[in-house]
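Hello,

I think I submitted the glutathione job twice by accident. Can you confirm which output corresponds to this input? Input:
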Amino acid sequence: MSEDYVPPKVWTWDKANGGAFANVNRPVAGATHDRDLPVGKHPFQLYSLGTPNGQKATIMFEELLAAGVAEAEYDAWRIAISDGDQFGSGFVAINPNSKIPALVDRSGAVPFRVFESGAILMHLAEKFGLFLPTEPQARAEVLSWLFWQVGSAPFMGGGFGHFYHYAPFRIEYAIDRYAMETKRLFDVANRRLAEARFLGGEDYSIADIAAYTWMGNIYRGEAYGEAATFLSMHEYEHVGRWVGEIDARPGVRRGRLVNSQKGLAERHDASDFDSLPPELLAGIVQGY
Ligand SMILES: N[C@@H](CCC(=O)N[C@@H](CS)C(=O)NCC(=O)O)C(=O)O
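Support: Only one job matched these inputs. Its output is below.
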């Protein structure tokens, strides 16, 4: 690999390309091994990891439970993506894209799968009538910001985060391109949050849950090494106000601890949190 790479006529897969995710990345889909997924006692079975995409689902469940929706009880199973668990046959059957989070809704007569973090948020919001308004204009605003986030996350993570932090060597062109786009996205959010308390308007919604897990980590300096300094996070004061407000929500604090190294590897009951040191629930932790 080098910066003066000239692509051949036809690309071929170099399995030993040395990148941080070389052991799990591959150019084909499908299962690599047989493995059934475990099933717990609750109506919702979540298969995930405490990454920003995974935390969208666990925060949503904990927010629903905090709002008094007892029917939203869930089991959260850990999918170790660096060990290749996402390529087990059971997981591929519920997400052919082999990425966490993936959900099985077993609350009705026939269980069904939901994959993609945005689809999981929308499914749960519609099912329980929370965090997604029904009035058409307000609903359109929330969905617009939700899909904005889902579409922009790959530029922040796969683009900026990858080339700034994980790539085996630094490529100025790639870092410049994705730093510029990541800063532009923060500016989009900052301007919106200067005029509205939350992304969708005055009420907290699934759009905030989705964007918070990504932007909060970068804003607080908990993602991609020195990224907060490199990207001058102090410029985004309204994003900072919004991150702080969401950080303080009890459902968010619990949701961020699920499927995480410092918190709960798995979550099967609300009482599981009782086993954690109280300072973890009082603050925000990073690390899955
Ligand atoms: N668009 C997907 C992206 C999910 C995603 O990228 N998940 C990552 C972890 S944050 C993953 O499972 N990576 C494993 C892999 O790429 O093999 C979503 O929003 O659910």
